[in-house]
């Protein structure tokens, strides 16, 4: 993690008691809070069980990207873990308030968090946290990725919904441990694989693979997060007349592709330069174009 | 969850800045804090990633049970997720301070929590939280248990350590979702099974099975938590001349046993009265004896 230097503007915290319509009449559904003050009780279920859902939204020159898709996915994650439905309008306005209150910077990372709340209350806790984005520009030149088994088959989302495959929950300890394992192996990031031999997603990213004029990602039905970034990129490619699809791919399929990327809202477009021991071509032009899309810019200007 | 009534004594919070030797010279490694005040920053990695480890210790008439084994297991979990080693002596004294500060009650539940700390600091956050135990006495008469697939094989602890099988982490969203699924099916609790067809453990408990004079639990190598309760019970049984062992069991093995239990430090001994559709005999005498052991009492007095 990049340590903020002393010239980095202060993060902004917006507390959202009205995330699920739970404020008293006349109270504000959200308010700016002091990010340096402790805000969470130790009995919040996020602190005792990692029990909550979240989204991370990129903001470029003050403009947040894909707010609607991110909030709809938050609602879907909440449904999968049986949290109350979040009020997406309140959250959207709270995000705007956080961005407005933050000092202007080229890139902000905005987290949208919703937990099951303090034990016994049944009332979710929610907040928005906006901070200067970490610098992931080193990811643009190409990253080394290792495949790591996630231990699950591509059928679990259908057969075993309690495993929460495809929900973006705050129980990310395994994702963090897998990332540490990648670093230990001298790599930058991870591509999870299923027990039935297919590529899934990264711990915090979505897989995109190019072969000729066909662009492929992992089907959400395989138990991966339905990516907000991939939807934007696919829309751009379709406008260009390219073919896009969801299909299961093996590591050999990815390693033999024309190019491949890991996409995320904060790290944006990371071209895979090496998958396990196989080097891949980095498509600099396409990377710039995808980067522009993920920043909410016109890809033609890239 | 049992809602505390107005006569329930207040919980006690002990903050432990010295959990990993991180306090300045002359500062106290722990201090009593106000459990009603927010203590956690929203940027603590437990709040953003469910990234931490924990233990739950039962305290009966003021005496905590199995503190040493619990703290050693906390240290093992910390090692598995690459947290700094906790100072077990500091934690032990902090637990005593929490118990002493709490109003005397017959049963206390003490949580020992250690997170990766606030992002970018590299310093763990830790606290002890002591509160009046929930009433699980309804579990004594026998519980209905459903088997649910955990989606993983019994070999993952060995093959894929980044999946953190066997670490007691704060990423418990799946455990909570499985418990909700059990309730939805009209049951009380869950027995997780592996993809290769064996019984593992409950979301917050360890399996114990009796067949004649032989008592069996799941091997820790299958990716389950090494139970502190089972160790106490096995020690009691061995003193009695019974045979104890770790061995993989199928659901059919459990359903055809003389008796079976789910053990935990807070719910104690819960006899399985029904596993999926199969009724099991509840061994009332043995349940009382196991209960006594788990309360740190002489089992002969049960």
From TrEMBL, chains A, B:
An example Gene Ontology molecular-function term: lyase activity
Protein name per Swiss-Prot or TrEMBL: 4-amino-4-deoxychorismate lyase
Keywords for this protein: Lyase
Matches recorded under PANTHER family: AMINO-ACID AMINOTRANSFERASE, AMINODEOXYCHORISMATE LYASE
Domain of life according to the entry: Bacteria
Similarity section: Belongs to the class-IV pyridoxal-phosphate-dependent aminotransferase family.
Keyword Lyase applies: yes
Gene source species: Brachybacterium muris UCD-AY4
InterPro entries assigned to the protein according to its UniProt record, in alphabetical order: Aminotrans_IV, Aminotransferase-like, BCAT-like_C, BCAT-like_N, Class-IV_PLP-Dep_Aminotrnsfr
Keyword Transport listed: no
GO BP field: carboxylic acid biosynthetic process
GO cellular component assignments: cytosol
Pfam families named among the record's database cross-references: Aminotran_4
């Amino acid at each position: 993690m990049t340590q903020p230097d002393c010239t980095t503007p202060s993060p902004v915290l917006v507390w959202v008691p009205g995330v699920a319509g739970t404020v008293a009449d006349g109270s504000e559904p959200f308010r700016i809070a002091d990010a340096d003050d402790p805000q969470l009780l130790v009995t919040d279920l996020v602190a005792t069980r990692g029990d909550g859902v979240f989204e991370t939204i990129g903001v470029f020159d003050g403009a947040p990207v894909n707010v609607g898709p991110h909030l709809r996915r938050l609602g879907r994650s909440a449904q999968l873990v049986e949290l109350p439905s979040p009020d997406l309008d309140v959250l959207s306005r709270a995000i705007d308030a956080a961005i407005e209150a933050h000092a202007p910077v080229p890139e902000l990372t905005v987290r949208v968090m919703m937990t099951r709340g303090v034990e016994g209350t049944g009332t979710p806790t929610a907040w928005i946290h906006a901070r200067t984005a970490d610098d992931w520009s080193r990811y643009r030149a190409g990253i080394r990725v290792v495949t790591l088994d996630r231990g699950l088959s591509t059928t679990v989302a259908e057969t075993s919904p309690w495993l929460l495959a495809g929900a973006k929950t705050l129980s990310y300890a395994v994702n963090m441990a897998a990332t540490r394992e990648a670093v230990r192996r001298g790599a930058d990031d991870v591509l999870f694989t299923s027990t039935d031999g297919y590529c899934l997603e990264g711990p915090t990213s979505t897989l995109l693979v190019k072969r000729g004029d066909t662009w492929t990602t992992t089907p959400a039905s395989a138990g991966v997060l339905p990516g907000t970034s991939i939807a934007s990129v696919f829309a751009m490619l379709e406008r260009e007349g390219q073919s896009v699809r969801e299909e299961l791919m093996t590591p050999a399929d990815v390693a033999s592709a024309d190019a491949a990327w890991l996409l995320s809202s904060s790290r944006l477009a990371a071209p895979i330069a090496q998958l396990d021991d196989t080097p891949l071509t980095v498509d600099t032009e396409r990377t710039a174009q995808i980067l522009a899309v993920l920043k909410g810019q016109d890809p033609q200007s890239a």
